[in-house]
Amino acid sequence: xxxxxxxAGMVWAFLSFLCAAASCVGFFMPYxxxxxxxxxxxxxxxxxxxxxxxxxxxxxxxxxxxxxGRYASxxxxxxxxxxxxxxxxxxxCGLLLLVALTALMGCCVSELISRTVGRVxxxxxxxxx
Length: 129
Known about the structure:
Layout (H helix, E strand, L loop, with lengths): L6 H22 L4 E5 L2 E5 L3 E9 L4 E10 L9 H27 L8 H14 L1
Antiparallel strand pairs: 1-2, 2-3, 3-4
């Protein structure tokens, strides 16, 4: 298979893919903030949470739900800042994956990535990061 990338381009493609994968895994994991509440370990990220308090109306107490899950809706994310973070981080991960997969295809297909495309892809990576 012919490649449109130099050796430095192949290293860039491989590292781009690793960074994009790490960013996406970090985005989907609910372990951004760790702590404890009601003597239980809790954690949450931008749109996922683990071990969260729920009001039990029948007993008039607060109980801990010890499972991980997403928020029921976008509006259920606790604050506007976290909603903005969810959108911006999701878009960044999408851009990073787009560039990384294009760069990996450039390792296998000749004439796919030119100098101009490489520069634009680097700019997109900068924005995605």
